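Sequence design from tokenized structure. All designs in this work follow the same two-part layout: the structure record, then the generated sequence. An example of the structure record is given first.
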């Protein structure tokens, strides 16, 4: 069949071809990941848009119904309805008019259907109910974002004040 090519050369070439197919990313696979990352970022940005507008009416578009929220004080609220009730309460109280501006975001994929988004942001001045002033504070929020029914939705978030963030 191939008189000038030895059997060993054919097998080596075939093995090299198979190995390259396995380790080299396919262009459409990378495009899919980029599209997924853009959708994860869109959900996270939708959260910050809702935060800054102080309305959370569109949360079903970017959160799961079993969304969990851990606030900077360590409080853990479970389920979208309970999280929304908490957010509406604090945004009509001590967070009324306060903005949270994203400074950076990074996205990592734990699997094809789970992403972790880390956001560093700067929060405007606010006073806790006990009178403690928070000014020019930086925070870090970790979002767990899952793909459900073809959409990337926030399933959990945890918000932490970055120590020493005051100027």
């Amino acid at each position: 069949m191939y008189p000038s090519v030895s059997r060993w050369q054919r097998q080596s070439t075939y093995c090299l071809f198979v190995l390259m197919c396995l380790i080299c990313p396919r262009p459409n696979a990378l495009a899919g990941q980029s599209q997924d990352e853009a959708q994860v970022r869109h959900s996270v940005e939708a959260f910050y848009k809702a935060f800054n507008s102080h309305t959370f009416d569109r949360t079903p578009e970017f959160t799961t119904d079993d969304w969990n929220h851990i606030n900077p004080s360590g409080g853990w609220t479970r389920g979208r309805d309970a999280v929304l009730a908490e957010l509406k309460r604090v945004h009509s109280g001590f967070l009324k008019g306060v903005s949270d501006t994203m400074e950076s975001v990074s996205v990592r994929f734990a699997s094809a259907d789970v992403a972790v988004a880390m956001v560093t942001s700067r929060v405007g001045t606010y006073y806790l109910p006990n009178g403690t002033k928070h000014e020019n504070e930086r925070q870090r929020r970790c979002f767990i974002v899952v793909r459900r029914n073809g959409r990337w939705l926030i399933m959990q978030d945890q918000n932490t004040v970055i120590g020493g963030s005051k100027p």
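The two ends are 76 Å apart (CA to CA). We note this feature because it recurs in several other targets discussed in the main text.
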